[in-house]
Specification:
The protein has about 375 residues and is of the alpha+beta class. The chain contains 13 helices and nine strands.
Length: about 375
């Protein structure tokens, strides 16, 4: 259930990331604004960055500089990366996708990448050894033919490498942060970086809460149908994108991964498109009343600063493909949210439902990772079968 909700939320959230109905509408025809300046906003207290979080960040960054050295003269240990050739057989017959003999396969021992017993069975083996691993696939394995099956993997060890994790030093620091030259500078840099992230998260929570309060206090009539249709179309296009990660068509993705009927999905997409349209109208109504606008040079600056992150070679290409109106609305929406937060009366206090937002974010992150994992799995058939 959590996975289905997260995936559907991911699709709908993507609709409003950088999207707006292209047609000009007069928001005053649809919106009667409530109070939007000086409104009370209650949020959970801003998190404090702990020394443990700083240490964990630094340790992760240092481990990111890990190199691997060839090992000779000893057997395989947990943590080693071994290059192996292997052939998997069931009832004496090689099964599809269960072998890797062309150039070898790199496997980290202890990673849990392969089925239980595979990695453990290699501990103690030496370079040049060939051994048979008698293993059993899990009962709930994805392949019906292999679920619960007893198999034999014949494995040859080609090489062994061990991880070499560097020490945090003045020499290493510039590879972690170009603006730092000493360990002490780097520790201050990390502390400031994490504090900036916490502040950004807090500011976004204030902005979101402020808008929710303003939206709830406003009256919005039925949006124009072409605006609703536009958001529905975007949701369907997003569904197609995520379906592609699974190698599925839209309907198969919705029924198999979201476990919804097409009728239910379309009905929910319609409801959320209406909600997104109303929110856009409120944003535009506030912007119109406060004379908040986005100039062409702001669009160009945004595209220039973000083209690499969005995967474009130039600002012009980004604007052309995403659309100037979409970027304009994204920036306008940002200005409106910042305006509401700046003019709100913010109170920090414990929230009874404070975990709701973090759980929702975690669910979306989990769905994103599941999607990425599935895409990767599709490309790596051999690894999939061995896992």
């Amino acid at each position: 259930m959590k996975r289905r909700i997260a995936l559907f939320a991911l699709l709908v959230a993507a609709v409003t990331t950088m999207t707006a109905c292209g047609d000009e509408v007069n928001p005053n025809k649809y919106v009667t604004l409530g109070e939007y300046k000086g409104i009370a906003v209650s949020v959970a207290p801003k998190d404090e960055v702990t020394q443990e979080e700083i240490d964990n960040y630094i340790q992760s960054a240092v481990e990111g500089q890990t190199t691997y050295a060839d090992v000779t003269g000893r057997a395989i240990q947990t943590g080693d990366t071994v290059n192996i050739d292997y052939v998997g057989k069931k009832d004496g017959v090689e099964f599809e996708g269960g072998s890797s003999t062309d150039g070898g396969y790199d496997l980290e021992i202890g990673s849990g990448s392969f089925i239980e017993g595979f990695e453990e069975g290699l501990i103690g083996a030496n370079i040049g050894d060939t051994l048979d691993l008698n293993l059993t696939f899990p009962e709930d394995y994805s392949s019906v033919d292999l679920a619960g099956a007893e198999v034999v993997f014949t494995v040859s060890v080609n090489s062994i490498k061990e991880a070499v994790i560097p020490e945090l030093s003045d020499e290493l620091v510039p590879t972690l942060a170009a603006e730092c030259t000493t360990v002490d500078e780097y520790k201050v840099y990390v502390k400031n970086l994490l504090e900036e992230q916490v502040q950004t998260s807090f500011d976004q929570t204030v902005q979101s809460t402020a808008f929710q309060n303003v939206f709830a206090a406003s009256t919005v009539s039925e949006p124009p149908q072409d605006m609703i249709d536009y958001y529905v179309e975007q949701t369907m296009l997003n569904a197609d994108t995520y379906a592609g990660y699974y190698g599925l068509e839209r309907e198969a993705f919705i029924t198999e991964q979201l476990q919804m009927t097409m009728e239910d999905f379309e009905a929910q997409a319609q409801e959320m498109a209406i909600e997104a349209s109303k929110q856009e109208l409120v944003v535009r109504a506030i912007a119109k009343k406060e004379k908040l606008t986005v100039k062409s040079d702001e669009i160009n600056t945004f595209a220039t600063e973000n083209m690499t992150m969005y995967g474009y070679e130039s600002a012009e290409a980004m604007i052309e493909e995403i659309g100037e109106s979409e970027i304009e609305y994204y920036l306008l929406n940002t200005k409106v949210l910042e305006f509401l937060a700046e003019n709100a009366v913010v109170t920090e206090e414990e929230q009874p439902d404070a975990t709701t937002v973090s759980e929702a974010v975690g669910a979306v992150e989990e769905a994103t990772q599941e999607t990425a994992d599935t895409a990767e799995t599709t490309e790596e058939t051999t690894e999939t079968v061995a896992e």
